[in-house]
Amino acid sequence: MTIAAIDVDPQKTFTPLCPNELPVAEGDTIGSELNRQAALANVRVLTKDAHPHNAVWVVDSHDKMLSPLDHPNADLTWVSHAVPGTLGFETIPELPPVTEYDHVIWKGIEPDLHPYGACYHDLQEKLSTGLIEWLQAKAVKTVLVGGLATDYCVKTTALQLQASGLFQVIVNLAACRGIAPDTVEQACIEMKAAGICVCDSTEAVKALL
């Protein structure tokens, strides 16, 4: 059985290392757990947000965030984050260089696209990033998911993979951090309802394999 580990957006933009972007508490501490998760897999995938400064959803302060947008592929406003060439774009400590991954997905490069999941470039989920197809080509049957943040990009990526009907999807909460306890709890409820296995530790993930 071929197993893939997916590191979803483990970037400094989503950690206290970049307090002016979108810091998630302890987001910079999950590198070792992502590595432990990857040790259980045959192939390892990295996804990274890669957003331009002039994106249609960018606002200039945190108090203007999360306002609804009337746009087909950008639903909410956010402060600028994960801009290529900046500190926020970099991956968190302890992770391997990009070139040591087996596959990499860059998300949200176009200024009018702000996807959360790694499987589609658009919110309508019509334009594939090729992730599902790549996993199929590698004969992957089980996908281990960790990263940032549990309640946004991790959840959406896991739900997209599960909806394909092609994989056993396991989310490893030890290798994730979320924005807020209530939204993390709701995300776990949604993922479990979709048939995703949600584990509290890498040891629990290993026991499932």
UniProtKB/TrEMBL annotation:
SUPFAM superfamilies: Isochorismatase-like hydrolases. Pfam families: Isochorismatase. Signal peptide: none annotated. Its EC number is 3.5.1.19. Keywords: Hydrolase, Metal-binding, Pyridine nucleotide biosynthesis. Pathway: Cofactor biosynthesis; nicotinate biosynthesis; nicotinate from nicotinamide: step 1/1. Belongs to the isochorismatase family. PANTHER family: LD05707P, PYRAZINAMIDASE/NICOTINAMIDASE. This is nicotinamidase. It comes from Photobacterium rosenbergii.
